[in-house]
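Go through this chain.

——
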Amino acid sequence: MKRLVQSHMAEARWCHSNHTPTVEEYMQVRTTSSAYPLLITTSFLGMEDTTEEILIWATNEPVLITASAVMSRISDDIVGDEERKHVVSSIQCYMKEHKISRKCAIEELRKLVENAWKDINDACLAPTQVPMKFLMRAVNFARVVDALYKDKDNYTNGGGIMKDHIQTLLVKKMSV
């Protein structure tokens, strides 16, 4: 929670000073401000086998949680960049830093999302001190991001496909 508040303060400073950070600075702050690391970590609290070691692992920025947050941030930026006015997006940072077009920046950022998926897969395949059910919880958060931001901002604009997904999951009877 402390990191989340600090990241929001950094964003406020950028906004008020009209600052465009480097992509690296942006990702460091905005992956935290997305609250994804906090959400994933706090989701472990309700799990039966949660130990102090697992929570320490989760709060030390493991690749799996970091990659999920990167996916979340970049995917949201790609589909929601035009609507944002309060702080720059990864697209704007990438364009300024590399002096390239918006289209090229999006292509490069999509590669970072693809690499984040590879990091997630690698983290699940490599031996770890954390049981698989905790790793899968983080993977499922990444899957949600994929559903929410695949082609458009289905989080902000909850009709259409997201409405169908929610109805299928929670309302409609499933036949076996």
DSSP finds nine helices and no strands in the chain. The chain has one domain: 2-171.
